Amino acid sequence: LLKVPLDDPAAFSEVATDDPVHFDGIFLHEGAWLVGVNNTDGQQTLVAMSSADDWATATTEGRVLSMGDATSITQRGDTSYYINAYLGNPSAEEYEIISVNFSCLCE
Predict the structure, then answer these.
(1) DSSP letter for each residue of 66-92
(2) What is the pLDDT of residue 69?
(3) How many Å apart are CA 104 and CA 36, to the nearest integer?
(4) How many CB atoms lie within 10 A of CB 72?
(5) Are the CB atoms for 86 and 92 separated by under 8 Å?
(6) For the CA atoms of the chain, what is the radius of gyration?
(7) d(C-alpha 56, C-alpha 13), whole Å
């Protein structure tokens, strides 16, 4: 996980996390919580993280197992949505949009 200052992208830094994360899609929930699709050790989860030091470090606040091959994630209202891309099925013609409520984690 990297922090990239928009006014000086060359000054990026690695965010120290309490658990390893390998994010695919991420978004910033209400300007305070980082929510992302994570694939660590072959287990795919949706992760909510917070920071008390302007993202020098981040703490995992909650995890939810995904129901398949999650990729992109976004937010509308109190609900997050991710795309199940069926990556294990190259002949898939449709991709499922799945909702998950992080409001209980992001308070």
Answers:
(1) -SS-EEEEEEETTEEEEEE--TT-TT-
(2) 81
(3) 16
(4) 15
(5) yes
(6) 14
(7) 8
Q: Please give the DSSP secondary-structure letter assigned to residue 44.
A: E
pTM of the shown model: 0.81
| Amino acid (1-letter code) at residue 98 | I
According to DSSP, residue 41 is labeled T
The tokens describing 5, both together, are 């200052």
Helix (H, G, I), strand (E, B) or coil at 31: coil
Residue range 93-104, pLDDT digits in tens: 888 898 887 655
Cα–Cα separations (whole angstroms), residue 34 to 57, 92, 94: 12, 30, 28
User: Which residues, at least 6 apart from 22, have a Cβ–Cβ distance to it below 8 Å?
Assistant: 38, 39, 40
Regions of the chain where pLDDT drops below 70:
102-107
Burial of 11 (0-12, 13-18, 19+ CB in 10 A): exposed
